[in-house]
């Protein structure tokens, strides 16, 4: 089957990207973990986990328990979390997508949150936009540590839409201001002025993001920024992700997987 965005073009011909395979199906959203497993919400509002080859791994039927999820964090394949911003609630799942627990942030005096993520030590990161602090909390909402009030540290404070924990650093992303980088203790480290990126991800030593029909890859150790123009034929996708050196495109009837060359 030809991909929906390239009906008249062999996918192998996309410059800079080598076609790997296609996973057919109609899905509304997509995310990918570090092992290459896909997490897809289908048109029946089920969260489905698929192995890299497309085989079914698990299904979660209650993904709309609090309406449409704002984000599904799969940075820890053993502990996917489903975040509902409107209700300040988090569903914590296991690797089989069975529900482990539910956390209502409001019951722990955290009322304004747009971004949550798993931490390296199996806890949770949240950015409290009422107190302007990056906080690490337990699965039951207990405060474990927090940054200083960023209004006292920075000239401008972020309103992040993403938090990513990778290789001893925590990346907080605000599309209007860029990446704010912290250490594992909540200490302010650095800022990267990459604004306007969408579908950002941190994988190993690279930061990925998309803007102006280009894939950007920033090498953290070498400070090198690379651009990969997306072919004109790549249009009309529902979601796009870059992680582990692969590009994932969610179209109307399939997930297309490409290797970034």
Report on the structure:
- With 261 residues, the chain is mainly beta.
- The chain has one domain (4-260): TolB, C-terminal domain (Neuraminidase, 6 Propeller).
- The chain is 0% helix and 48% strand.
- It has no helices and 24 strands.
- It has strands spanning 17-24, 27-32, 38-42, 47-50, 56-60, 71-73, 81-84, 89-93, 99-104, 116-118, 124-128, 133-137, 143-146, 162-166, 169-174, 178-183, 188-192, 198-203, 206-211, 214-219, 224-229, 239-243, 246-250, 254-260.
- A 4-stranded antiparallel beta sheet has the order 1-24-23-22, with no helix packed on it. Strands 2-3-4-5 form a 4-stranded antiparallel beta sheet, with no helix packed on it.
- It is globular and about 50 Å long.
- The chain starts with 16 loop residues before the first strand and ends with a strand.
Ordered list of secondary-structure elements with their pairings:
Layout lengths: L16 E8 L2 E6 L5 E5 L4 E4 L5 E5 L10 E3 L7 E4 L4 E5 L5 E6 L11 E3 L5 E5 L4 E5 L5 E4 L15 E5 L2 E6 L3 E6 L4 E5 L5 E6 L2 E6 L2 E6 L4 E6 L9 E5 L2 E5 L3 E7 L1
Summarize the structure.
This protein is mainly β. Helix content is 0%, strand content 48%.
